[in-house]
Amino acid sequence: MREIHWLRLFRRGMAAFLAVMAVWLLALGMAAGAGTSLIEALGQRGDFVTAVLRLELGELPGDRPPLLLRLALAQSPLLAANPGWSADLLPEEGPSQSSLPNAQPAPDRDDLEAPKTTAAPGDIVERTLVPTTGEGYVTGAGLYLYNRSSLEVDLAQAAGQELSFSLSPAEQGPQILIIHTHTTEAYTPDGADIYEPSDENSRTLEEAYNMLRVGDEMEKIFTEMGLGVIHDRGFYDYPKYNGAYTRSGPAVEEYLEQYPTIRLVLDVHRDALIGADGTVYKVATTVDGVKAAQVMVVVGTDNGDGSHPDWTENLALATRIQKNLDTLYPTLARPMALRGLPYNQELSVGSLLVEVGSHGNTLQEALAGARCFARAAGGVFLGLVEEK
Questions:
Q1: N or C end of the chain: smaller count of CB under 10 Å?
Q2: 151-154: long-range contacts (C-beta < 8 A, 24 or more apart)?
């Protein structure tokens, strides 16, 4: 308590010192008008105001809510008129649950961070994410898009856009590349599907239980449909998760150079859905009597900086696959997602990210969803090749 008392005295002393310095400048003989201008100028500088506030208020303990700090800041008319000045004094807040689209129980977290929350199978809440209204979505052509970018989208126009696939049926070579930027992602252990976690929960190096197993299931279906597949088996998120896209990008470029017949690049992941209260969700539906994980097609963009000009064509491809999914397996597909990051999709037209279930799903549910997705995507791809 004595240490806290002296820190408080120091902060208040520094604040008083700054005020005295301002008065001292006036006492040096500055003209009244100039002195007033100086004080007004200091008062209009956000860095000066927040510095004085930080010295006066100090830091709240990390385990206490910021309510008292917000109340204190609210008493300043100057800050009320310039709310951005106090932003760095307040802790960052997570996404607001109320701002999510009507079928989304929690923010999807596959972007750049591994989920920290897991749950026992009995504690996981199952949802079938089918929008009941267009609220929170971009809609068009009977489709729904969860737009997490800053770009405006005409979904009906995207659905009607012509694609530039130029692969001839006579060309020999693989047409599809399956890769996993987050290879070690895994599902909730259940039944016989028990694995040894790697450095985080819901992640494992065991290929029989991570995303490589899901990619194998897709590869099997594509091959049965007569399509040539390259399935990359590299680990890009282990031992370090952050920077995985930077590491997987060169691999994609190498495959594209080595196999110029590749026209469809699928980065296959699983999502993570965790509510604000820590609830873990899984996304599932039933297909022909079998529980299957829902799938979500994700399209990356450049958020308007021009580094990924072909994202609209990838969106057009996504709309066709989504339409076929809705036709073949109603309720299997979650609404498409558009995000501000490119996810290496700028490397080739025909690149998509696919989320197969969430970490709350079981592996068997994910495999069922993966098979359905491959049949729908393969059918679209074969149709595009035949058109050319």
A1: N
A2: 151/301, 151/303, 151/304, 151/338, 151/340, 153/315, 153/338
Largest interatomic CA distance in the chain? 90
Q: Is the peptide bond before 239 cis (omega within 30 degrees of 0)?
A: yes
- 153-211: pLDDT as tens digits: 999 999 999 887 766 666 789 999 999 999 999 999 999 999 999 877 799 999 999 99
Distance (Å, rounded) from C-alpha 236 to C-alpha 255?
15
**Comparing C-alpha atoms, which of 287, 380, 283 is closest to residue 330?**
287
**8 Å CB contact between 64 and 25:** no
Q: How far is CA 140 from CA 184, 224, 330, 335, in A?
A: 35, 33, 17, 12
d(CA 37, CA 31): 10
Q: Which two tokens stand for residue 19?
A: 């005020």
pLDDT tens digits, residue range 201-258? Answer: 799 999 999 999 999 999 999 999 999 999 999 999 999 988 999 999 999 999 999 9
- Residue 376 near residue 325 (C-beta atoms within 8 A): yes
Please give the Cα distance from 161 to 360 (Å, whole number): 36
For residue 140, the surrounding DSSP H or E stretch is strand 138-140
Written as six digits, the tokens of 223 are 């091959």
For residue 256 the two structure tokens come to: 């594209």
Strand partners, 197: 204
Rounded to two decimals, the pTM is 0.75
Cα–Cα distance for residue pair 297/337, rounded to 1 Å: 6
